[in-house]
Amino acid sequence: MNNKVVAMLLAGGQGSRLKSLTYTIAKPALPFGGKYRIIDFPLSNCTNSGIDTVGVLTQYQPHVLHSYIGLGTPWDLDRRNGGVTMLPPFAEIDGNKWYAGTASAIYQNITFLQSCDPEYVLILSGDHIYKMDYEVLVDYHKEHDADVTISVLEVPWEEASRFGVINVDDDMKVLEFDEKPENPKSNLASMGVYVFTWKKLKEYLEADNVIEASSHDFGKDILPAMMENGEKMIAYPFKGYWKDVGTVDSFWEANMDLLDLNSGLNLHDSGWRIYSSNPQLPPQFINKTGNVQSSMVNEGCVISGEVTKSIIFQKVVIEENTQISESVIMSGATIHKGAKLHRAIVPPKFEVPEGFEIIGQQDEVVLLTDEEVEKWKERGEQ
Amino acid sequence: MNLLAVVDASIKKEGLQDLTMKRTVSSVPFAGRYRLIDFVLSNLVNSGVSTVGVFPSYPLASLLDHIGVGKSWDLDRRKNGLYFLPVTQRDGGISSVGAFAGLEEHLQFFTKSIQPYVIVTNSFVVTQLDYKDMLEKHIKSGADFTEAVSKGVQLKTYILSKDLLVELLRSYVDKQVVSVEDVVNLKKSPYTFNEYEYEGYFAVIDSIQSYFEASLDLLNEDKREQLFLADRPIFTKVKDEPPTRYVSGSHVERALIANGSTIMGTVTDSLISRGVYIKKGAHVENCIIMQKSTVEENCDLAYVIADKEVYIGEGVLLHGTPERPIVLRKGASVSKEDLR
Fold first, then answer.
1. Residues B309, B326 contacting (CB under 8 angstroms)
2. Which member of A74, A273, A283 has the closest CB to residue B256?
3. Cβ partners under 8 Å of residue A305, min gap 6
4. The pTM is what?
5. Within-domain flag for A86
6. Which CATH class is domain B245-334?
């Protein structure tokens, strides 16, 4: 037994509910928290957990992700053995094959996995924000001598139906697995983080591949099949911050969580660093007219306005007499004089014109777009 | 690029002693997130120079830890790149730039390289010098030496041909000269000399006073714009610090702040490095607070330079003057009781 763990990071998702934020980049590449991209979280978790072989499966708009991850240097994954391997779909002798589902993405990279020769395979999502020690999870899997271990989280009952819901006995053995049930019988949600004993996973991937009706998905196909055959399926109770950033609102919320010292998501913890590529920019400058409260600001910014409860990415310029609250301002954006933003998400390099205000906003979060600016201009002309 | 670089990082400056107890002048922190050597290394890289010899003297650990194999400057090359060439200063240490005794210890660096010209420079003068332009002017002038100057101030940066440098390294004892700087200052015959007039940002860091002034000068927009050019970025060793956190109730005016800090108190007209903690009720004015230092609650600091990992206990009052800022050495810990 070689005990080797290989992580397979699913990073092909589009994230269509994030609207224009993911028109040109995959969801895992979405900027987050003033300096990060979402995929920094699972990648840093791997590094911090001592996992040094990571496959990143990409499909939708992969260019930013590929160039961002590169050799994996920021995460110490530029290794002679193992390290990070980008795994986009590829052509085979019998044709081109897109990744039809989460399971087929892994199935199509069986050759890669075999060359790594792992004992265990960790399946991760590239679009979740959380800090987790995968070593503890894998140890748990070993202790229970499980075939598959599913990491689960207690969620509020009313939200349970959005997730794969898991019913367990007193020994955390999984009794039932319901993918997005209408009437959930439990509030233990699957986090989409699985450890498989590789031999078993291979067996089930190969079996699933020949079933035409299968959607080739872990939650819908692989896990139910394993359940049915009585394979040993164990739930691992995760405690801590975890967020699936699926919508503009949840993306905004996750950013705001960073400003809440009690949210459980602390980026200032030097014992569990989140690694990211570090652009070479001068320190931030807070001007005489600037006022920053309850916010996070990255390097290269010049702040001359009022900023409250906001996340400011690198190279943002905020001019005088501006008021920004509960907003996320992405890298290279400029907020011109007199603009007022509340609960706004400003995309990278966006220019918010002088005196701009969001028209007709109640309490909702507004993702700024050219249309939004047009709307404001038109109203000014009337 | 037909230019080979010598960064003389062996120069000691007595006036900077408080900041160089455990490091060379070249690794003194500057401008919030940099070390002095970052500026010259970045200028070299931005000018297209990719063969760089750094000639430091002891204590080396801090500098070595900072520049490593030169990755941050893209100088970790299979061919050429960064050469770390420590000098023993068996002559007792010469404080002029490009000391032949030191360079001679690494004669091979010069004889083995193929570049026909050498730039000899230092790390205590911060500039945005374009060495490529300087080389072009040097070649055009036909002189043996070109020295960079700005408004009558010597920037202690010289270009000469490699053959001439090698010849000097073999004959300097007979010629009774000690360094490249020495030859230029003496206008030693039979050589010819040319000046390169530079117009951009510069600061000579050779005393606490000049260090303090140059640092606070960066709070002026025009100075920052001269030093931090978008097309000539300053590279430094990367740290994975999160963005800086401004807690409710903080008050910050005219401050240059690096990442990873937490600001709860009042900071005005100051420079704050990476990973600094300014606690509630603390008042920091006209100060330089370096990496990983902590200013506890209700401190009152003015004209203070706190080196790395300094701990300033609750309620400490320290007021220096613009002419004589108080320096707290690396790792120092100050409490109210100490000051009584």
1. no
2. A283
3. A289, A290, A291, A318, A319, A320, A321, A322, A323, A324, A335
4. 0.93
5. yes
6. mainly beta
